[in-house]
Amino acid sequence: MPLSVLIEQYDNVLELLKHTVKKLSETDLLKKVPYEDGAATIRWRIWHMSDHNRYHQTYIQAVVKEFHKQES
Could you give the number of structural domains in the chain? Predict the structure, then answer.
């Protein structure tokens, strides 16, 4: 899959997330939803998704950096 398509799909997912989250009220964000063996608030789940995304971005940057080192 071309990089341009991956970026477009990624951008679309982020826009969908922003569009959805903007509709939520403070009350909505405090609602609990199932998570693993318990429950977590919607606010926490959104934060967790963002944190997980940052983790993957950092990992991709490390892989690219290592790739460039091996090229030299």
Answer: 1
